[in-house]
Specification:
Radius of gyration: 22 Å
Number of strands: 7
Structural class: alpha/beta
Number of domains: 2
Shape: globular
Order of helices and strands: HHHEHEHEHEHEHEHHEHHHHH
Distance between the termini: 44 Å
Largest sheet: 7 strands, mixed
Number of helices: 15
Strand content: 5-15%
CATH superfamily of the largest domain: Spore Coat Polysaccharide Biosynthesis Protein SpsA, Chain A
């Protein structure tokens, strides 16, 4: 099965099958004797909890760091650097586009080896006018405009300029990205030193002091980096996160480019890299800084898109994920991640709903408590690390408890998306996250 030909057929049928399996798993313990009805949950808690604990403990700050960072100051090092294209897809970004251009122009990299591109993806605000002025004042900025109805979302926008660029590497940013000036030098050095096909910068929240929602997102991103690095150190899988990803063009082209049949280009491309045996690494410092969403409604809009795109890729690629392309260790890692991230929320929803109807205690609470406990440990570990970016929230008891409760939103979002994907036909609507210029 060619990666480039995967288009996501029968997603609705696959969603229905997944929902049925989760429903049966949630109902089954209620049908067995009370002395045994906690056995499925406890068994999964031991197995998945052991996996999660191992992942968190395997993350070490010394992993995946530059070994020869001093070479960045060497003139011969600059002469050997590859050519890089920086690509930013922007739609209705009038609040941040000027700051973005300033950040792009401040990147420390040989000018003759760096090409800067902003794709105006059908903006309806003043973004096109601002870009027109900026491109005149700063000729290094290349602007390409698409109509609103061009289709393909962010993937389509990025694909639209691939044939206009010729860099050996692509550095993908969101419009709200804020960077240290030497971040690209350090990222490409890490990639070349370690033989990585992709480098994902740790994501940090620039407005984490705005409110508790933003603070918890900052903690969540630190937790995510800990878990990803731990998965990689355990022989598992690390993933791209869209903003702040450095990827090898040759590998991207071998994967068929960015997939326009998905609403999460980064998650989909992560699987394409995985299936072509092209490893991705997570770089802790320096991070890429971005805005956290500022309200509960904006959070749920963003997370629904992430959840749907995350599930779609498993449904699209599962025949290849269980094939001989992947080692047994990677299959185990993906299986555990899938059960914790996607199956557990749906099973817990069914279990809780049935418990309310029957006036009984939920039976999957041991697994849920273990999963949230592992998350709390990852929160603490991530926020205890030093950071070259914005100061991470203090991992005190109150913040850890609050952030763990905050994670419960996934137990609402995931079931909602599974029901939506099961009831309605595939709908590829790329809903961007609004940026206010924090």
């Amino acid at each position: 099965m060619a990666l480039a030909k995967i288009s996501g057929e029968n997603r609705r049928a696959k969603s229905i099958l997944f929902l049925i399996c989760c429903a049966l798993a949630g109902i089954f313990p209620h049908l067995i004797a009370p002395t045994k009805n906690l056995f499925p949950s406890i068994t999964l808690a031991v197995f998945l909890g052991g996996y999660g604990l191992r992942v968190v403990l395997r993350d070490q700050r010394g992993n995946y760091q530059l070994e020869k960072e001093h070479l960045i100051e060497d003139e011969r090092f600059f002469e050997s650097l590859p050519k890089i294209d920086v690509l930013v897809a922007a739609r209705d970004e009038e609040n941040v586009i000027e700051r973005l251009v300033s950040r792009l122009l401040s990147i420390e990299y040989p000018e003759e080896k760096l090409s800067l591109w902003i794709i105006d993806d059908g903006s309806q605000d003043s973004t096109p006018n601002l870009l027109a002025e900026l491109s005149i004042n700063y000729p290094r900025i290349n602007v390409f405009s698409r109509s609103l109805m061009s289709g393909g979302g962010k993937s389509g926008a990025l694909n639209s300029v691939l044939n206009k660029t010729d860099g050996e590497w692509l550095f993908i940013l969101d419009a709200d990205a804020q960077l240290q000036s030497n971040v690209l030098l350090r990222a490409v050095t890490l990639a070349l030193e370690g033989g990585w096909s992709g480098v994902q910068l740790r994501k940090a929240v620039v407005n984490c002091e705005l409110n508790q929602i933003a603070s918890y997102q900052a903690m969540e991103m630190a937790m995510d980096a800990v878990i990803q690095r731990g998965r990689l150190a355990s022989g598992g899988v690390a993933e791209l996160r869209g903003n702040g990803e450095l990827i090898n063009r040759r590998v991207l082209e071998s994967c068929g480019g960015f997939n326009e049949q998905t609403i999460t280009d980064d998650l989909d491309l992560s699987f394409r890299f995985l299936l072509t045996r092209s490893p991705i690494v997570i770089m802790w410092d320096p991070p890429v800084q971005e805005e956290a969403v500022e309200s509960v409604s904006a959070l749920f809009r963003q997370r629904k898109r992430w959840a749907e795109g995350g599930l779609q890729r498993f449904f699209d690629y599962w025949p290849l994920l269980i094939s001989k392309r992947l080692s047994n260790v990677k299959k185990l890692d993906l299986g555990c991640f899938f059960l914790l991230q996607y199956a557990l929320p749906v099973v817990s929803f069914v279990d809780t709903t049935l418990s309310i109807i029957l006036f009984k205690m939920p039976l999957y609470w041991p697994l849920s408590i273990v999963a949230l406990g592992i998350s709390s440990l990852a929160y603490w570990k991530g926020c205890s690390e030093n950071s070259e970016g914005p100061k991470l929230p203090d991992p005190n008891f109150i913040n850890i408890i609050g952030a763990t409760i905050y994670l419960a939103h996934w137990f609402i979002v995931i079931p909602f998306i599974v029901f939506k994907m099961s009831l309605f036909r595939k709908s590829l609507v790329w809903e961007k996250t609004d940026h206010v210029g924090s």
